[in-house]
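User: You have something folded?
Assistant:
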Amino acid sequence: MKFRILVLTLLVTTTILVTQCTKENVDNQNTNELITTISGNLKDEFNENVSNATLSINGVNVNTNSDGNFVFNKIKISKNAVIIAKKDGYFDNYKTLQITKGANHFVQLGIFKKVETQNFSATKGGAVGISNQLSVEFQPNSIVYENGNNYDGIVNVDMKFLNPSKNSNLIPGSNLGIDANQKEVVLKSYGLAGVELRGVNNEKLQIKTGEKAKLKIAISTKSTAPSSVKLSYFDAKSGYWKEEGTATKEGNYFVGSVGHFSYWNCVQQFELININGVIKDNSDIPVLSKIEVIDPIDSVLFAYGYTEQDGTFEGKLPKNMQVSLIINHLSTCNYSKYGTTVGPYSQDTDLGILKTNIDTKLLKISGTVKDCNNSVLKGALVHLILGNSIYVYDKQVVTDDNGSYSFDFPNCNGYNYKVVSIDNINNKVSQIIPLTVNKGIIQKDITVCENLDMVEINGIIQSENGSLLNGTKINLTNLNDTIPIQSTFSNNGKFSFFVNKNIPLKLRMYQYTNCGQVEFSKEIGPFTQNTNIGIVTVVFPSNNQLFVHGILTDCNGAVVTNGVVRYTTNNFTKYTFSDNNGAYALNIDNCQNDTYNLTAFDEQNNKFSNSFTISGVGDITKNFNVCNTSDEYLQIQSGDPILDNTIFQNIYVTDSLNYLIIYASENTKNENVSFSMKALIDNNTGSAVKLNFFDPKISINNLGNNVSLNTINLQAFPVSLGDYYIGNFTINGVTNNYTNKSMNLTGNFKIKKKN
């Protein structure tokens, strides 16, 4: 794949409403098609492999295996193709490929989870965001369904802020954009985020035509950021970022208005030139490499991309600008980087050979397979054996029409290598041939002429629901041994092994859970001939699963919507919530057979249930009558619905010789709210010298300057355990950082002395 310099963008990932661009010579340049193979890897923002995700190109779908790997084999694509990555619970993401030759290409993609969910009323409007990173402000009655009809319910907003220099794989598309004059440009960004709008039934939503939403995005590199930048959105059809508006620097943020939600960038635009070259290692061997393009002035990552397997790359750079290239060989045994500076260039430039000082320890093994009559063997299997065991086939290839084979990978562990070839059609096998590694290049021809004392077994694996398992790792062991003699990955459910005759075996597959590794296994063999073992249904044990579910009802028997169920062990406290039917459900991996204490809350009516204790595993139905009145409370009046009329689920007070500290926290469906105050005790009345109010999600943390107006007044001060602190408080001039609006808070409390 071509080295694509992927610009780092102010990205707002939302419900995708693609706006078509009128630049015909750009949008229609994808008419040239070719046949190619594209392989790659999908990772999340924590650099963890993402399994069971769906990737698609032009309607062709593949799934990632357990290691996050995928392959589009001999796919017909346009010159400018877009890969789409999808998985439940994640934002859709895109990668634009520009391919000019039908070879094997590598690409690494990123995808990020929906973890920041907030909401607002469509009729009232409101502001949502992530503290110090991202905010979006919506006008009243500005939300519609995708078909344009008005939406007047609660709008759920999924958000994710990304630092472009740290999350380059997550950036959609490429580094290329279309400016207001319909000219192709190279882009540079100053921040990324993801936002998606959904209705209460998970339907996709958009902004009404003619309305605007205000975006406020933290600037990743503040010292060199310009006073204004261009706003661009990603067109998934063309694979380009398209200019639409501007954003202005306000403090540490870029602020602008948008009329629809798709992927958004806050970017600088540059004229471009084309570059190409070859990356080689310290031994003058071309290798697959990742290339990052850095602005040397502010160290901002312009973009990144990958070479072809032969080390060649093509890309686009800003015209008349010097940039730094950071090269990381993907086949190196140790993580290391090589940096060099290129440019400035005023025209298209061939960089020639860029030789690094990195030793990749690359091992290339190739040769030709022939039969007893010295004729080349097409379709023969060639196994590369690692270590001393004659059974361990770590890698496998099939010879081409000319009988040729090749292995190409890093020789990091210094294995002893052997090769063996099998002609399954004629039931012949070669000798097991030891290899002598010398400077990483081995040429070894193989003659397949001995009678085969091995057989092929094959089959299909599926899940409990009958779906074929793709990319699942299957280990084959001797019957009473857990050490694999062979391993393979299923391909659309199919798998095969070559095994020695007359040996009892076991298929083993593993799944990693919160309770550790669980195993599925099946005994097979011994075999005296080639055998299809048929369908294997894979069922992993779930003995550690505790499933608790039920209904919350109030004092009148009506269901409690948006109620809270708190479940606690000695190690943690967590929450779940009832739906519009009053139903809740908990799935707990009870690995240590812990005991859980459950309590339900009806915050709207300030009620709670009796507690319920469970342990063990299995399916438990527990309904809660939420009808008790709390003898403790801390309530706030502010005008903010997130804070007002709140029954806090965790409240405590500590007092010392001079100070009183009140702390409360709760979990709601959309917020984690915490509240703390510290006050000087003065004759049991409490005159505040410092008050702190904090909440990392809604970002209300700035007190007014006039501390004397911020007070805690105590009407009752406990003498003994079980007595109550009773009082009220006033906090003036608190600032909501999302809206920059000042608020005055009042409240009252009754809290039992517990220590």
Notes: The chain is about 0% helix and 55% strand. The longest helix spans residues 24-27. Residues 1-31, 683-708 have pLDDT under 50 and may be disordered. The two ends are 66 Å apart (CA to CA).
